[in-house]
């Protein structure tokens, strides 16, 4: 872990996890780490005690993790086309439930294919980056059929996606997406989707990306992107133009 502007890590967390694909950091600094590939679990690193506990049993790797406002943990299992969840307040470790998908990858409204990034809003609605179907699906609370909110098959298509791998929903319900195979980050607004980062092709320049995988925002709106093939993490500063509209730099 690095503090802002530091070039040297301030803390190095070591554990027995193997090939983790995703993590989720809570407001109090606890970290949920995928350890599903060989160990079949999700681990939680507790910041206060610097210890690990197992909080979920899974059959395969979690390509996305999320903890909602009710302390429910979500895991997207890419190779099963499914998102599972369990309450962290439930003492039974095997209490996973299906949140989305049918355990058979597909492209119908109740199916997923290669789900990766996930996001759960304050209404407990689930957004899924449906990687192989080139779309983002919204599963409203209690519904097994998803609504395509981004991609060619959405009700009001405004953008074409190629391998969406990460998603974030802001407080104004605007959706931000890592469009991996287009090597860019896109975001929605009043006039639909627009490109924010990587808008001029892939590469290694400061305004380019090469197969980005995931991203997050800090409290100030700055964006941090895992730029996979460039082997770096890029920070893009929040800026506003002369009309007060947000843009990235």
UniProtKB/TrEMBL annotation:
GO molecular function, one term: zinc ion binding
InterPro entries linked to this entry: 6-blade_b-propeller_TolB-like (IPR011042), NHL_repeat (IPR001258), TRIM-NHL_E3_ligases (IPR050952)
Top-rank lineage group of the source organism: Eukaryota
NHL repeats: 106-142
Pfam families for this protein: NHL (PF01436)
Keywords assigned: Repeat
Name of the molecule in the record: NHL repeat containing protein-like protein
Taxonomic lineage of the native organism: Eukaryota, Metazoa, Spiralia, Gnathifera, Rotifera
